[in-house]
Backbone:
């Protein structure tokens, strides 16, 4: 197996609500999306999908306990100002602020928002992982 991730699918309770949330953040739905069924977003070399939580659990052969699934997504940026701006935009779009932007013990700056379905997103500046021109982190 190659060391890469191709697709992350987020299980959502209400596809239209979640779609509106991500579109308010500036994400653009891909043409392969199927109205009322699944939404796809091209996120630069991989895909994020929104799909009904029950359908995703059945397809993934797991039991859905309804809580946090032990995964946090992250979005790295270049400056603390970007962290704070994205957190504010997410809250304005319907997210809950999990943690305000602040300096971290590892020398960065980060905060967390939680989307309408409970998926946490860390927004961070990591000085050990500079971003290339396309915004992809470069591991030292």
Residues:
């Amino acid at each position: 197996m190659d060391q890469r991730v191709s697709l992350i699918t987020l299980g959502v309770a209400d596809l239209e609500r979640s779609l509106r949330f991500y579109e308010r953040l500036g994400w653009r739905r891909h043409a392969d999306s199927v109205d009322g069924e699944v939404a796809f977003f091209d996120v630069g070399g991989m895909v994020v999908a929104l799909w009904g939580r029950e359908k995703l659990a059945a397809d993934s052969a797991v039991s859905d306990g309804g809580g946090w699934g032990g995964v946090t997504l992250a979005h790295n940026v270049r400056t603390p100002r970007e962290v704070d701006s994205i957190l504010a935009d997410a809250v304005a779009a319907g997210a809950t602020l999990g943690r305000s932007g602040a300096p971290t013990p590892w020398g960065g700056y980060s905060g967390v928002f939680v989307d309408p379905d409970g998926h946490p997103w860390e927004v961070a500046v990591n000085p050990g992982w500079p971003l290339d021109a396309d915004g992809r982190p470069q591991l030292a």
Summary: The radius of gyration is 16 Å. The chain is about 25% helix and 30% strand. Residues 25 and 116 are 13 Å apart (CA to CA).
